[in-house]
Specification:
- The complex is a heterodimer of chains A (388) and B (627).
- Helix content of chain A is 71%, strand content 0%.
- Chain A is mainly α and 388 residues long.
- Chain A has one domain.
- In chain A, α3 packs antiparallel against α11.
- Chain B has four domains: 110 residues, no CATH class; 140 residues; 119 residues; 104 residues, Exocyst complex component Exo70 (Monooxygenase), CATH 1.20.1280.
- The longest helix of chain B has 37 residues.
- Chain B starts with a helix and ends with a helix.
- The chains are: A mainly alpha (388), B mainly alpha (627).
Chain lengths: 388, 627
């Protein structure tokens, strides 16, 4: 391994980290504990890289599916656990300057992530409302029933509510006018209608109306920069672990916001991760791919990039078109087409129905783990100076 | 109808025969079997029908349907609300009932072309009827609510959080114990109030509609309309209780005083929600969806989920927030509120749909306990880290002693709650001796305080003043502990030990300050008279100057405790006065000098006594002026 000048800021961070670790190992090679400390830190880097490598190996069809997001949360939980152990094993260093500043910063970031978790939970509830409308469509166009005008009318009503629920705020008024033309028996005012289906949109109990996911993400990422050589030395290499975990936190929260509907989604967060970190490549590539897919679906951004949501949207739109185009009695061809669409819809519905509950539990678990690790941190590092 | 029923029976039998029989002879065999079961199903009759293309059965269906169409479509197109007139609504419901029965009865024969055509019409009729029912359902919920709830129930709720005197009239929702500076929310039996958001008649109507909608397979729509209306009502009620959606960060950024107000509002809102609003919703739900328990559970969860999460989220934010010790009392309020509401969470959210809400409440309640333990930990840290900067002038009471003792006394007013919180902590092993109970915790904090004070006492360069400082603070500690909850937690042994400790400081003081002076007055009986005379002259001079010095210093010192001050003076007087009196008397009898004794003796015994009684005048005395 080449020996690098520790202070050289242009040198590769990874190499700095490593060379310092090895340098220290030589200096205090007799101390068993120090050796295991370095092994632990290096293993953490490697594991984070491997886990994200695995995530980024997902094909475009799998990326941003509920299953993928759940895997992402699993990865987060694993990283968090490993990081927790590192903190625990190094509490004597972590309790003192300069590492104590890193701890404080990290906890501050992670507390900010809690609001993201809560907003995401509300977002999952929003998807659940869409799922309920889907269920009505499926119930109306049940495979075992004959498909008559009645069934289509019933489905249509649910589909229109669904389409409105999936819309951006700005397209709201026109959509309502349309809906009223279709269904307004008595001419209800748009406000009235907004009220009627309004609860689809204002499903936020955990954050205030002015809360913004975009701003929250920026706050989490604020001042997140790779540690400098001297910082790494001064913290026995822990600065690298802190930077790694903070980046994982930021990325996971960013991806959640990207995938799931929540207030004021915005994905303009810069990931300043030097390529030399083992895990930089998979995270940056995922970042790029997710951004790419968000650009493709610019217009429907408000709902989140989750594959299943996209499928709900797509199936609902096809179904809507079909419902508008049919004449009764149905031709055999149209009926076949309708049955096929229903089948597609049923598949999406099943996927959402099966996936949302465990996803919500996992988001909650992430929340609890963040809180727990912070509490443990406050408990043990607050006392650290006493234990010296 | 009987005729109709028989037709249906034939139709079913024929249908089975046709479906099962792959060819005519097989169908024939099956009919043969049927006819042996029931005399009415004679072979001739059935086989005739078999080829007759079911014209008679279908005619009956056709007939029923036509009449239903006539009845129902008049309602579907009605401009006025159907439920405005009970006769209309019940006729409408009866028709729907019949339509449901007809569809259900004929569906097995849907493969018959003519039946199927009729069924399509029936379904069409049903769908239109259901849309109309759903609309009426919604408007009944909204209208019924508007005319009723605003006038009665909501005002009831409003009165729960308005004026103090109103609360008093209601039996006092929130009682403030007068001599406690910490207001404690106390649940009152008056929560035994159920709001009827809708008039009973409306509820019955809604139930009849819901029953038909579920029977017709429109349960999802019904539940959807129901929960969106009630949710709106509930959220409106919550916001009238002064509760707003706040993110965790917003709660954390809030100035503490604002947060205190918010917590008070939360306490009241949580009680009203869990004891009045939610149970009322549960009851309404159970009545509207009576006999339809799954729909009732689902709808109830949909209605309450958001508000519950909002309530819990705030408590969570408080639990995760700052551990600053002054927050203890408010966090305790939140903890106690949630604890006292746990039975409500258990009973209201006992079904499967709501399980998640109940578990959340439990988790967050536990987290509040953790937060309170964290606050005590922070208190420990504060005591431990309180820097020994400048010594308190005149050896007086240190602010930290006052702060910690008053804090602990106030905290111990919630002794039972704290005991619960610390007992729960059994599995967390801390600092060797596991802090499992509140008394251990208190003991530990007192130990920290005392060792911090000892470090601070080292700031005094004068060891005598150091003793006075420790004596003062020790005395204050004992004083605050005795006869309080804190005292009963620490135990009599602890108190005895600490009284002894204060006495020890007192002895130290006396020894290091006055015993030296006493030594000066020691008489020398062995030397020659002229030597004695000279030495006594020197001694009296030395005494005078040292006594002046001590008095000058110590009259400025502080002993805050009246009784202790008296004790100290008395004990000083007790050793000094006899010794000084002896010395003077002896001095006056010494040849040669005796005559001129007045030249040397500056103070009479009374003077000394008076001076001693001027000790420890403290800040109001010369010390204050000297600064």
């Amino acid at each position: 391994m080449p020996t690098t000048d520790c202070q050289g800021s242009s040198a590769s961070f990874n190499h700095i980290g490593r060379s310092i670790l090895s340098l220290r190992r030589e200096q205090i090679y007799s101390m068993e504990v120090a050796g295991s400390h370095d092994v632990e830190l290096e293993a953490f880097q490697k594991n984070v890289a491997e886990r994200f490598g695995d995530l980024s190996s997902a094909g475009n069809d799998d990326l941003l599916t509920i299953a993928w997001v759940r895997k992402l949360l699993d990865v987060f939980l694993c990283c968090q656990e490993e990081f927790r152990v590192i903190l625990f094993n190094n509490s004597s260093i972590v309790g003192k300057s300069p590492a104590d500043r890193l701890v404080a910063e990290f906890f501050e970031r992670s507390v900010k992530a809690l609001d993201v978790c809560n907003a995401i939970r509300d977002g999952i509830e929003q998807i659940r409302q869409w799922q309920k409308l889907l269920e009505i469509v499926l119930c109306a166009l049940d495979n075992n029933r004959s498909l008559g005008e009645a069934q289509f009318r019933r489905a249509k009503k649910a589909l229109i509510d669904l389409a409105i629920a999936l819309l951006d705020e700005k397209d709201y008024g026109t959509a309502l006018a349309h809906r009223n033309r279709s269904f307004g028996r008595n001419n209800a005012s748009p406000k009235d209608h907004l009220r009627r289906i309004g609860h689809f949109r204002s499903l936020s109990w955990s954050v205030s109306r002015s809360w913004s996911a975009a701003r929250q993400l920026q706050a989490i990422g604020n001042n997140l920069t790779a540690p400098r050589g001297n910082e790494i030395v001064a913290t026995n290499g822990l600065a690298v672990a802190f930077f790694t975990m903070s980046s994982v936190l930021l990325f996971v929260m960013w991806a959640l916001v990207a995938a799931i509907p929540c207030q004021d989604r915005g994905l303009h967060v810069h990931f300043l991760i030097p390529r030399q970190f083992m895990w930089a490549a998979p995270i940056l590539s995922l970042h790029e791919r997710i951004l790419e897919s968000s650009k493709k679906r610019e217009r429907r951004n408000a709902c989140g990039l989750l594959k299943e949501v996209h499928q709900i949207d797509r199936c609902a739109r096809f179904m809507n078109e079909l419902v508008d185009s049919v004449q009764f009695p149905l031709t055999e061809e149209k009926e076949r087409e309708a049955r096929q669409r229903v089948q597609e819809l049923a598949l999406v519905f099943e996927a959402v129905k099966e996936g949302l509950d465990p996803l919500e539990r996992q988001v909650r678990e992430v929340f609890h783990r963040i809180v727990r690790s912070r509490t443990e941190g406050l408990d043990s590092f607050g006392r650290a100076d006493h234990n010296e | 109808m009987a005729e109709n029923g028989e037709e249906k029976l034939f139709a079913v039998a024929r249908h089975i025969a046709k479906t099962l029989g792959h060819n005519d002879s097989m169908a024939d065999d099956i009919l043969q079997i049927f006819s042996s079961f029931d005399g009415r199903l004679s072979r001739e009759k059935l086989s005739e029908k078999l080829s007759d293309d079911d014209s008679r059965g279908c005619a009956a269906l056709e007939h029923t349907l036509k009449s239903l169409e006539r009845q129902i479509s008049q309602y579907i197109t009605a401009d006025n609300p159907i439920w405005a007139d009970p006769a209309d609504s019940s006729a409408f419901l009866d028709s729907i009932e019949e339509l449901i029965a007809t569809i259900r009865g004929w569906s097995p024969m849907a493969s018959e072309k003519s039946v199927s055509a009729c069924l399509v019409r029936a379904e069409d009729l049903m769908q239109q009827a259901m849309f109309r029912v759903a609309e009426e359902f919604r408007s009944l919920m909204e209208r019924g609510g508007e005319s009723f709830e605003l006038n009665q129930s909501t005002r009831n709720v409003a009165s729960f959080y308005s004026e103090e005197d109103e609360e008093e009239e209601n039996g006092g929702l929130i009682a403030n114990d007068e001599d406690e500076e910490i207001p404690v929310a106390q649940p009152i039996t008056d929560y035994d109030i159920i709001i009827d958001s809708l008039p009973s008649g409306t509820i019955n109507d809604l139930h009849e509609m819901a029953k038909r909608m579920l029977a017709a397979g429109f349960g999802k729509e019904c539940s959807h309309v129901y929960s969106s209306c009630r949710r709106e009502f509930l959220e409106e009620s919550m916001s009238r209780l002064g509760l707003q959606e706040l993110s965790i960060e917003e709660v954390h950024r809030m100035p503490w005083q604002d947060l205190e107000d918010e917590i008070e509002r939360w306490n009241k809102a949580a009680n009203v929600a869990l004891r009045i609003l939610f149970p009322s919703e549960r009851r309404l739900c159970d009545r509207v969806f009576f006999g339809l328990s799954s729909a009732a559970d689902l709808s109830f969860m949909e209605v309450c989920r958001g508000s519950t999460i909002q309530l819990l989220n705030f408590a969570d934010a408080v639990a995760i927030g700052s551990r600053s010790p002054e927050r203890l009392f408010k966090v305790l309020d939140v903890f106690e509120t949630l604890r006292d509401l746990m039975p409500e969470f258990e009973s209201l959210f006992s079904d499967n749909y709501c399980l998640i809400l109940r578990n959340e409440a439990m988790t967050i309640w536990k987290r509040l306990a953790e937060a309170i333990r964290g606050i005590f930990m922070e208190l420990e840290n504060l005591i431990r880290r309180d820097p020994a900067k400048a010594a308190v002038p005149c050896g007086g009471l240190h602010p930290i002693t006052r702060y910690v003792m008053n804090y602990l006394r106030a905290a111990c007013r919630s002794r039972q709650t704290l005991e619960q919180i610390f007992e729960e902590n059994v599995n967390v092993v801390e600092r060797g001796a596991s802090a499992t109970s509140l008394s251990v915790q208190m003991d530990w904090i007192m130990e920290l305080l005392e060792s911090n004070l000892e470090v601070k006492s080292k700031l005094y360069r004068d060891p005598v003043l150091c003793s006075v400082f420790l004596m003062n603070n020790g005395r204050y500690i004992v004083h605050k502990v005795e006869g309080s909850e804190l005292g009963s937690l620490l135990g009599d042994d602890w108190i005895r030990k600490h009284i002894a400790k204060v006495r020890q400081y007192q002895m130290n003081y006396q020894r290091s300050s006055w015993n030296k002076l006493l030594g000066v007055l020691k008489l020398d009986n062995t030397s020659a008279p002229n030597v004695v005379a000279r030495s006594m002259t020197q001694k009296i001079k030395l005494f005078n100057s040292q006594f002046d010095e001590i008095c000058k210093a110590q009259s400025a010192w502080v002993v805050f405790d009246e009784q202790l001050r008296k004790e100290l003076r008395a004990s000083v007087a007790k050793i000094m006065l006899p010794a000084y009196g002896n010395f003077i008397r002896r001095f006056q009898t010494v040849p040669d000098i005796g005559k001129h004794a007045d030249k040397y003796v500056k103070y009479s015994v009374e003077d000394i006594d008076a001076q001693i009684n001027d000790l420890f005048q403290g800040g109001s005395g010369s010390a204050g002026r000297r600064r």
